[in-house]
Amino acid sequence: MTRRLHIGGQMAADSWELFNITENVGVDHVGNAKDLSRFRDRTFGEIYSSHVLEHFDYRDMPIALKEWHRVLDSQGKLFLSVPNLDVIFKLFLDKEKFNKQERIKFIQMVYGGHVDNHDIHNVGFDRDIILDMIRQAGFAKCEFVKELGIFNDCSKIEVDGQLISLNLIAHKEKLEDFINPPVEEEEKSKICKDVMFFMSLPRLCFTDNMFSAINAVKGLGLYGERFQGVFWEQGMENLLEKAIDKGYKYGLAIDYDTFYTMYHVLDLYNIIERNPDVGIISPLQPRRGNKYPMSGTFQDPRGDNVLVSKGGFDGGIKPVDTAHFGLTMIRLSELSKLKKPWFQSKPNEKGDWHRGHKDADVNFWIKCKSAGIKAALAEVWIGHLQLMCSFCGPVEENFVTYHEEINTVLEGGLPKWTIPKSFKEKQVLTKS
Predict the structure, then answer these.
(1) What CA–CA distance (Å, rounded) separates 180 from 135?
(2) Which residue of 67, 71, 193, 262 has the fewest CB atoms within a 10 Å radius of its CB?
(3) Which residues does the UniProt record annotate as the domain Methyltransferase type (predicted)?
């Protein structure tokens, strides 16, 4: 039987276990919802939480979401409702329609009612912020809905015909479900004739992710080659030329630190086949140490300023000027529009390699735009392997593991509970 947890619940309900920070009739579990250590991993099939998440502060809120993610089973769902600041602020500012007493209620929706020590709001959400938090917690998919349709609570409140809540369902899905089924032989026979892949590899590298490449190219029957060494631009150009000489239609550039499956490759292939005017297609891949994708549009002809890609897709693609080579499909016939060398670094106006210079990859995208080669971002999501540094959490959080990006740590961004006492007390260590 599927177990269901209602976080913040106060009234007993069939098939739902109630979890609340205060004792009450019908409450099954009393505690702070950022710590669900009493439950094993994958205990619940569903979790429901309405107007609870905003009570955590900025440090505890992501911890709580990760805990909720942890205790959901592999196909579990999180039914979540939080105050929608976009709507509430709009209502509050309409002084012609709402009197002072009504506007005070809007303030309480933002800051909490303060009826007890727990009825205080510490964070706020709009659509983009809550979506970002949900994804960072590890949920695979999120859908906004008008109603959660389970309990009669704040998630249903409307003012002036507008819901004051963001209601959503977040799904925790197993990636294995997407990579096991084989590709049909008819699809495989077509793509393996059209696509040659090539990989940029250092002489020594991590091997954790090599099975992304092995499983993808094996599953699709693709031929490919690698290049190594410090002369990246030479390797790229040489293998693109080889793909042209061998009669392939597309070259597929792959970085060894990219996570993908053969179905991601198949999606890219299908998209570029449907769009014959597009010369280069790249999937969504995050920048290293940055929350935005490695893609955008140039704000000037020299490509000095790049506006990051935002907004939706039209027919599965979005025009861009620059992207990446993590898993990028290049229509080889389009390269005839470029003057050689295709890949070449360029110094700045002073002739040096400081600010304003163009690396070979960026200069390639500038050349493509100048030559009229259309580049596009595909509605395809791939991963980017990035080194993380893990710490045990503080005592009060039961040492739950905390992750931080390595660049942040190397620049001095340590979690405050891990800072050595000798540093905090400004003591000098003596030799023993």
Answers:
(1) 24
(2) 193
(3) 29-80
> How many whole angstroms separate alpha carbon 20 and alpha carbon 198?
54
Lookup: tokens for 59: 């440090």
Integer Cα distance of 36 and 32 in angstroms: 8
Question: CATH number for the domain including 293?
Answer: 3.90.550.40
Q: Contact at 8 Å (CB) between 296 and 395?
A: no
Low-confidence residues in the chain, pLDDT < 50: 175, 177, 179, 428-432
Length of the chain: 432
Q: List the end-to-end C-alpha distance of the chain, in Å, as a whole number.
A: 60
- The amino acid occupying position 81 is S
Residues 379 and 404 both lie in one domain:
no
pTM of the predicted model over 0.85: no
* pLDDT one-digit tens code per residue, 327-343: 999 999 999 999 999 99
| Residue 234, phi then psi, degrees to nearest 5 | -70, -45
Burial of 207 (0-12, 13-18, 19+ CB in 10 A): exposed
Give me the pLDDT at residue 400, please: 67
Question: 36 and 49 in one domain?
Answer: yes
Q: pLDDT by residue (tens digit) across 266-312?
A: 999 999 999 999 999 999 998 876 767 888 888 776 666 677 667 78
Pair (155, 236) in one structural domain = no
CA 207 to CA 365: how far, in whole Å?
29
Structural domains counted in the chain: 3
